[in-house]
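Before relying on records like the one below, remember that each one covers exactly one chain. Contacts with other chains, cofactors or solvent are not represented anywhere in the record.
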Amino acid sequence: MPVSVVVGDLTRLPVDAIVNAANTALAPGGGVCGAIFAAAGYGELDRACRAIGGCSTGQAVFTPGFALPAKYIIHTAGPIWHGGGQGEAKLLRSCYDTSLRLAWDQGCRSIAFPLISAGIYGYPKQEALEIALDAMARFAQDHPMDITLAVLDSEIADMAEAIRQKGRGNLLCP
């Protein structure tokens, strides 16, 4: 199945799971993380995350979706960009791979991601996008899952379309 890139609010998508670009403490944050906590129900999600206790960079854990349309929230801690020489690409790739496997194992057949680490963690958007789309496309080759990358600005959607045009990834970009 192809990977879709949409400009829109991740928290409103009718998918089985959404992915939270979390911090390692699974604490409420800003950006995508803050929006997910607000939409899911801050108190319930905070209690569920505290019960888990944390998540190592590159790994993923899940909680219920609470008030979201999604049944699950998969929390993954992306790497902070330090110039690319500290294993950031491998860790970022692991965020997508681990999240996809966890969703699949939970019976999810649709999932939506933000562009992990490309906000306050400083990962260059083009590189983050190439890693994300490659990981998603590779997973989709062997797993019948609808995979969506939800972005908030059309610039990133245009970058994804350019990657698709170059023949990288099995993408559908509206």
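The two ends are 15 Å apart (CA to CA).
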